From TrEMBL:
Pathway: Amino-acid biosynthesis; L-methionine biosynthesis via de novo pathway; O-succinyl-L-homoserine from L-homoserine: step 1/1. It comes from Alteromonas hispanica. Substrate binds at residues 163, 192, 249. It comes from the Bacteria. Belongs to the MetA family. The record marks 192 as: Important for substrate specificity. The gene is metA. HAMAP family: MetA_acyltransf (MF_00295). GO terms for cellular component: cytoplasm. This is Homoserine O-succinyltransferase.
């Protein structure tokens, strides 16, 4: 949230120089406030688990948020009761005419498939294009981040033989970017993916900035200059046991997964995970909601401008 300060307070120029948002009392007294409208396109198979993870992060703000869960198609998910989908999820067609302040598109366990081989790829591209016209700022997570880069910019991921799995150290590249407000210069975040896009490919796209990255796993947070798109290649929403559950799932299915890096105490899967990413994950979502959504969205969503088409 912005700091409300007296008009012409000398500290204002200092704070603005550090890219800290302030609001003078004249503007604050005339500001109109309404609940934010946020959509969540949940592509994960265990819908309920992902809902809890995302809602926990979205709730860490004084802003009032109305949330719509959106489904990609009519197929029954394997790990979520159909009754849950019927009760709590919207068909895309039912919200296609609505405009949103923010949209979150989750990851999906589709790492080894070509995009065009994904059964709902046509639906996915329809929603990606729809978001350019109907959403003020979209946050793409993991697989969705790579899928959006491919669709909008023609940037193709590489598939690694060994999965990036674990908790990795990252560096803040742009400390004045509002998404990273309050971040330490180095911080931890979980990754779980085979796909990889070299940082140089992000840097080669006009209008995109790699604001945080890792020496081991590459670009982590990539933001468009107009704040309309944010690409996060990891999983800041993951809970303490999520990487452990994925590891045991793969192990029990007959695979030979590597032990997630920097995750288990003493690198021993029989011991408890070391949780060292929650604060920055929470801060990332709070900053996105505040600076990329709340501070930039029009009060009247019908006035939301269509985003210009990305340049390939």
């Amino acid at each position: 949230m912005p700091i409300r300060i007296p008009v012409q307070l000398p500290a204002q120029n200092v704070l603005l120089g550090e890219n800290i948002f302030t609001m003078d009392m004249d503007r604050a007294s005339s500001q109109e406030i309404r609940p934010l409208e946020v959509g969540i396109l949940n592509l994960m198979p265990n819908k309920i688990e992902t809902e809890v993870q995302l809602l926990r992060l979205l709730s860490n703000t004084p802003l009032q948020i109305n949330v719509d869960f959106i489904r990609i198609d009519n197929q029954a998910p394997k790990n979520t009761p159909q009754s849950h989908m019927d009760a709590f999820y919207h068909e895309f067609s039912s919200v296609a005419n609505k405009k949103y302040d923010g949209l979150i598109v989750t990851g999906a366990p589709l790492a080894l498939l070509d995009y065009e081989d994904v059964k709902y790829w046509d639906n996915m591209t329809t929603i990606l294009e729809w978001a350019q016209r109907h959403v003020n700022s979209t946050l793409y997570l993991c697989w969705a981040a790579h899928a959006a880069m491919y669709h909008f910019y023609g940037v193709t991921r590489q598939l690694r033989e060994e999965k990036f799995s674990g908790v990795y150290q990252h560096n803040v590249n742009d400390p004045n970017n509002e998404l990273l407000r309050g971040f330490d210069p180095t911080f931890s975040a979980p990754h779980s993916r085979y796909g990889h896009i070299d940082t140089s490919l992000y840097n080669g796209v006009e209008g995109l900035n790699v604001v945080a990255e890792s020496d081991e796993v590459g670009a982590y947070i990539v933001a468009s200059e107009d704040k309309r798109m944010v690409f996060v290649t990891g999983h800041p929403e993951y809970e303490a046991e999520t990487l452990k559950d994925e590891y045991l799932r793969d192990l029990n299915s007959g695979q030979n997964p590597a032990i997630p890096k920097n995750y288990f105490t003493d690198n021993d899967p029989t011991k408890s995970p070391i949780v060292q990413w929650r604060s920055h994950g929470s801060l990332l979502f709070t900053n996105w909601l505040n600076y990329y959504v709340y501070q930039t969205t029009p009060y009247d969503l019908s006035q939301l401008a269509e985003k210009s088409q990305p340049k390939r």
